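Project outcomes to date are best conveyed with an example. Our students and postdoctoral researchers have been running inverse folding experiments weekly, and each run begins with a structure described purely in tokens. The record below, which covers 536 residues, was selected by the lab manager from last quarter's runs and is presented without edits.
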């Protein structure tokens, strides 16, 4: 797809064959979000599906299935004379060995083959710094946009990230604006040259500019999360549809797993309903929403439902062959059996970002076992660093790497008890938004409440294990603490680790190695929770 940038306006223009406009104009948006490098198909736990399960029809998603689904729907809709827009709402990066091995190159290749019209920058697109995103943009044919990030001070990204896109479909101009979560500096590694602007402030100006240019059909493709999308819809006039990502939310009118209807409707400042859609994550669903406009650009009708990409959707043969080719060099490592699980180990996003979860206990226990001889008493691991569950039976290295894909290393340091409490306060400060900073722990137990405002005493009690007993944490005592290097350097809001941590060493073994070794030593692991985190 041809991309053209227009100076300060940061405008990308693409054009398709046009026909004359008519009073009622409909546009169908096919969309995914938060694929997180699930290039291969996934199982019911959102981790890589094996060949045996694929043969038994138990797998979902994967780029070969996404390719088939988008091709089929695009052809069917076009055959009915309908207009189609294909959208990715960000976070192609990070989450499997494909990303560890190929970074953004595999993602760009498959996105080009599918033929997306636009992609929003997700926070994880910065996981390898500006260079990783710049390399991806260079290889991707799809316009990659984000409007509320200022990259003018970054030499690798300057001039490469448009803020607005205009696509012509069926003779009508569709304006697309985009925004990225403002806390990306805490959740990823954008570097000092990238600045984030409040989304509402940027979007209001961008929408006004499109309307002044005569564009009256405007879609926001965002990577903010559903709660922020709802705030944006309520604050910014002129947006007709929001296609979002980041919170991994399943919206559906038919699934009992849905977190809300598809679409969610929010009234804007003019009293008009704004539809918001999102399609879970990991390529398990393809969202499909049809929006009908009158001649003045007002939305008169909206309807749709995400499509479950299960075994009823055939794998595209060409994509499947290419996935197998790229997967061959890493298959041996993935297949290495390191232990077994007596039952499924729950690493579900909802579980690990709101309370004690089995995967959090496994990872934190492994970190404590590895560092106990170094005087470490306390482990704090962010729930957002745990990216999948593990099913019962044999545990492979590939499964561990899917759970811990970030290549984080074990970090140790010393910290006063009062600062441990500050860290835990940060960890429970954004639980309502499902943020990844929620603290999974070992060596301590704590109780907390959401009845108090964030930062105002949500953490009620903290106890440290002392031999076989538990004692209240001493605010003045210095404790040995272990975490991952990302958090130790202030990631996920844990600034107190960076500012007040003493005698820090951030270069221990990779967390995946720590957990794999721990599992290997157990011989067979039984997942559990023990009440170390209690919400009151």
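After processing, the design step wrote out the following sequence:
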């Amino acid at each position: 797809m041809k991309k053209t940038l227009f100076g300060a306006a940061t405008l990308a223009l693409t054009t398709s064959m046009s026909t004359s406009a008519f009073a009622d104009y409909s546009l169908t948006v096919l969309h995914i979000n938060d694929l997180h490098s699930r290039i291969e198909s996934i199982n019911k736990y959102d981790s890589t599906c094996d060949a045996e399960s694929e043969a038994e029809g138990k797998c979902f998603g994967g780029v070969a299935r996404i390719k088939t689904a988008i091709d089929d729907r695009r052809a069917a809709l076009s055959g009915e004379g309908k207009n189609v827009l294909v959208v990715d709402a960000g976070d192609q990066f990070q989450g499997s060995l494909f990303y560890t091995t190929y970074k953004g190159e595999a993602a760009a290749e498959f996105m080009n083959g599918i033929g997306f019209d636009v992609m929003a920058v997700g926070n994880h697109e910065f996981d390898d710094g500006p260079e990783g995103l710049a390399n991806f943009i260079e290889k991707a044919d799809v316009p990659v946009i984000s409007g509320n990030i200022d990259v003018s001070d970054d030499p690798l990204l300057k001039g490469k990230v448009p803020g607005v896109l205009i696509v012509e479909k069926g003779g009508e101009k569709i304006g697309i604006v985009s925004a990225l979560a403002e806390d990306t500096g805490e959740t990823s590694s954008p570097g000092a040259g990238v600045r984030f602007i409040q989304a509402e402030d940027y979007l209001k100006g961008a929408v006004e500019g499109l309307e002044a240019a005569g564009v009256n059909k405007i879609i926001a493709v965002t990577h903010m999360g559903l709660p922020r999308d709802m705030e944006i819809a309520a604050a910014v006039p002129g947006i007709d549809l929001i296609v979002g990502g980041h919170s991994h939310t399943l919206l559906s009118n038919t699934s009992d797993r849905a977190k809300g209807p598809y679409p969610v409707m929010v009234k804007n400042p003019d009293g008009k309903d704004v539809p918001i859609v999102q399609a879970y994550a990991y390529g398990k669903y393809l969202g499909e929403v049809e929006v009908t406009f009158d001649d003045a650009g007002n939305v008169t009708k909206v309807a749709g439902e995400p499509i479950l990409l299960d075994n009823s959707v055939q794998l595209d043969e060409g994509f499947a062959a290419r996935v197998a080719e790229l997967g061959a060099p890493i298959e041996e490592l993935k297949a290495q059996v390191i232990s077994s699980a007596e039952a499924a180990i729950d690493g579900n996003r909802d579980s690990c970002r709101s309370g004690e979860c089995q995967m959090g206990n496994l990872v934190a226990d492994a970190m404590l076992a590895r560092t106990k001889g170094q005087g470490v008493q306390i482990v704090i691991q962010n729930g957002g660093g745990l990216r999948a569950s593990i099913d019962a039976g044999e545990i492979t290295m590939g499964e561990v790497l899917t759970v811990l894909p970030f290549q984080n290393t074990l970090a140790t340091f010393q910290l006063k008890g009062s600062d441990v409490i500050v860290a835990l306060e940060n960890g429970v400060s954004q639980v309502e938004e499902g943020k990844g900073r929620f603290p999974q722990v070992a060596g301590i137990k704590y109780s907390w409440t959401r009845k108090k405002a964030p930062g105002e005493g949500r953490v009620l009690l903290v106890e440290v294990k002392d031999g076989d007993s538990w004692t209240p944490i001493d605010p003045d005592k210095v404790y040995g603490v272990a975490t991952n290097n990302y958090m130790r350097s202030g990631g996920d809001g844990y600034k107190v680790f960076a500012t007040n941590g003493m005698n820090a060493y951030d270069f221990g073994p990779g967390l995946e190695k720590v957990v794999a070794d721990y599992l290997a030593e157990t011989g067979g692991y039984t997942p559990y929770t023990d009440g170390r985190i209690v919400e009151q």
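The first helix runs from residue 51 to 55. The domain at 7-324 is CATH 3.60.21.10 (Purple Acid Phosphatase; chain A, domain 2). The training component of this project remains on track.
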